[in-house]
Amino acid sequence: MVHIYSHNQLYGVWKTAKRGHFPKTNRSLRLALHTKQKSALLYSASDIAVYDQSELVQHPFLSKIGPDILNSELRWKVVAERLQHSRFCNRGLSALYLDQHFIAGIGNYLRTEILFAAGVHPDFKPKQLDSKKIESLARQTLIIGKRAYDTKGHTLLPTLSDKLAKTKGSYESVRFMAFNREGLPCRHCVQPIVKAKRNGRRIYWCESCQPTVSLGIKV
């Protein structure tokens, strides 16, 4: 068995097509995988490598990567266990939720949306959360990840998404609960959404729904 690793950064993109039918694009085709009927095409990726199993287990990054957020067999209890593990429990959530060694597949907007859905401030550490908050955060990690995948990047609550779809707003205006909504009213409580930088990346939260002191925080 061989394993293909690609680092897409912000530019690489996978496309699928019928075999022999290539999408019209100005992007550079870097990798093509074919079956008898379909093709998976990788464009614009900056780094591609192929490893066999023995090389994979010795790779300094890939051998330590965390479980895939979209793995259908991943359960919230596993995420909760990782949150409480000595390796991760003393790290700020804003940093932890970008660390692919913790959970693979979480990017910047998912970090904001998961923490917002769980009602947890990004500056807390897992060890400061009680068991109910740990469970909520673990569950929302998987719920938001799957929702974003199923909806091609939308993280709104389904009922709210249906309601906002009727307003015919812009793509970005009906996509997120908190991310990229600085100064706009929280969709839960109308408190203005706050923007800051954590770990060199922008992050958003609601100071009312994600307070620095709450019943879910050990003090």
TrEMBL record:
> What Pfam families does the annotation carry?
H2TH (PF06831)
Gene3D superfamilies annotated for this entry? Answer: 1.10.8.50, MutM-like, N-terminal
Keywords from UniProt, A to Z, are: DNA damage, DNA repair, DNA-binding, Endonuclease, Glycosidase, Hydrolase, Lyase, Metal-binding, Multifunctional enzyme, Nuclease, Zinc, Zinc-finger
Would the keyword DNA damage be found if you checked this record's keyword annotation? yes
- Give start and end of each FPG-type domain: 177-211
Which PANTHER family does the UniProt entry name for this protein?
Answer: ENDONUCLEASE 8 (PTHR42697:SF1)
Checking SUPFAM superfamilies in the record gives: Glucocorticoid receptor-like (DNA-binding domain) (SSF57716), S13-like H2TH domain (SSF46946)
What biological process terms from GO does the record include?
Answer: base-excision repair
Listed name of the protein = Endonuclease VIII
Q: Does the keyword Glycosyltransferase apply?
A: no
Its gene? nei
Query: Which family is this protein grouped under?
Result: Belongs to the FPG family.
Q: Which GO terms describe its molecular function?
A: damaged DNA binding; DNA-(apurinic or apyrimidinic site) endonuclease activity; lyase activity; oxidized pyrimidine nucleobase lesion DNA N-glycosylase activity; zinc ion binding
Can you name the source organism? Paraglaciecola psychrophila 170
Q: Which domain of life is it from?
A: Bacteria
